[in-house]
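ok trying this again, last paste got cut off
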Amino acid sequence: MPKKVLNGIVVSDKPNKTITVLVERKYQHPVFKKVIKARKKYSVHDEGNEYKNGDKVSIQECKPYSKSKKFKVIGVSK
């Protein structure tokens, strides 16, 4: 099964080797047919502490680094 790749914006870079990425997705409600914007925050492993607040990044699913970190940074997205 392929690994998930998501795009988002870095909203926090405070912890060491960790960033928080806000991923936004849009979907249509099955009954009301209204387009809904859903947001979710992911804790992401950043080995070199190289990404800062406001950066647009791509993240990929990987083996768990800790209880909450199950994604790693691939690089800056376009």
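PB: full thing came through this time. The chain has one domain: 5-76.
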